[in-house]
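User: Can you recover a sequence for this backbone? Please restate the input before giving your answer.

Assistant: Of course. Working from this structure:
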């Protein structure tokens, strides 16, 4: 199975930012222009980009259509993007606007049968289900929605097994406690996810610091990794990671 690196660009109020543990009050802003940043990632050898509308993830209503079109057209990258996707019209609009895949999170937790219908309608390669989670005190993993501001009563295992059963191909999962913290990827979480859904292509996200972390999630059996702060802060060189 091939392994894909997904440089990530998170946008809030028009700026490139990173949040610590998904906390909107703990934001780091970067001066990089998002189109120039995407172009630099493409020049380094990336084939994909992970683009997130953080404001929409919390409040609904994807706002990055113009930026998506520019990145797709000028950087030549295939883009998986999400944030605020709530209805089938949102999926149609993003796919028509240049997205190769649409990432759905909150709606995938709240109305799983609706998203199952999207997988069937648009094809399993066009939908990424993002189930980002926290580990509760009892050791149970539970997903969070609406920009990680709302906890779900669902068990992560139940959602993952459901989507595996309806033909999901691409699953993205972040250990929220590690996101933006440069503390290493959540290998225990990814082992569980691969056990629950062995046929799904899993994208690891959160905590990656360097090329060794990339190699570690690949060795676990993940199909790809999303890279955010490590690229922006320079602890990971994208070209080096791609060569490895």
């Amino acid at each position: 199975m091939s392994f894909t690196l997904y440089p990530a660009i998170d946008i809030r109020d028009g700026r490139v930012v990173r949040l610590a543990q998904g906390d909107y009050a703990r934001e780091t802003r970067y001066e990089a222009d998002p189109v120039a940043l995407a172009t630099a990632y493409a020049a380094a050898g990336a084939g994909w980009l992970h683009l997130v509308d953080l404001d929409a993830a919390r409040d609904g209503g994807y706002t990055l259509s113009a930026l998506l079109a520019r990145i797709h057209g000028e950087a030549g990258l295939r883009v998986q993007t999400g944030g605020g996707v709530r209805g089938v019209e949102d999926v149609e609009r993003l796919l028509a606007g240049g997205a190769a895949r649409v990432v759905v999170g909150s709606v995938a937790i709240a109305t799983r049968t609706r998203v199952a219908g999207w997988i069937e309608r648009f094809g399993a390669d066009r939908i990424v289900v993002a189930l980002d989670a926290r580990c509760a005190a009892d050791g149970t993993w539970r997903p969070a929605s609406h920009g990680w501001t709302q906890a779900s009563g669902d068990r992560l295992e139940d959602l993952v097994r459901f989507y595996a059963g309806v033909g999901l191909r691409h699953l993205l999962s972040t250990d929220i406690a590690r996101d933006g913290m440069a503390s290493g990827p959540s290998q225990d979480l990814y082992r569980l996810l691969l056990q629950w859904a062995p046929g799904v292509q899993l994208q690891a996200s959160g905590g990656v610091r360097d090329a060794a972390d990339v190699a570690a999630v690949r060795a676990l059996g993940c199909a790809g990794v999303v890279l955010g702060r490590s690229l922006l802060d320079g602890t990971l060189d994208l070209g080096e990671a791609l060569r490895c």
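That completes the design. The chain is about 40% helix and 25% strand.
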